[in-house]
Amino acid sequence: MTKIIGRTAILCVALFSLAACGNTIRGVGADMANTVDATQSAGQDVDAAASY
């Protein structure tokens, strides 16, 4: 019985850890997308200023 409880606890910890990693990866993806958008916007601002 102790082995079953121990294995179940280890499985639960592993699942929670994987879920946390998934959220982190999504967050990094969103941050990267925001960085690209900001860089493109800054480039457009510089181009508009240079054309003025």
Can you walk through the features of this model?
The protein contains one helix and no strands. It has 52 residues and is mainly alpha-helical.
| Main sheet characteristics | none
User: Low-confidence spans: pLDDT under 50, at least 5 residues?
Assistant: none
What is the helix content?
over 70%
Structural class by secondary-structure content: mainly alpha
What value does the average pLDDT take?
88
- Portion of residues in beta strands equals under 5%
**Tally the helices: what do you get?**
1
Rough outline: rod-shaped
* Alpha carbon gap, first and last residue: 77 Å
Strand-and-helix sequence, N→C?
H
> How many DSSP E strands?
0
The radius of gyration is 23 Å
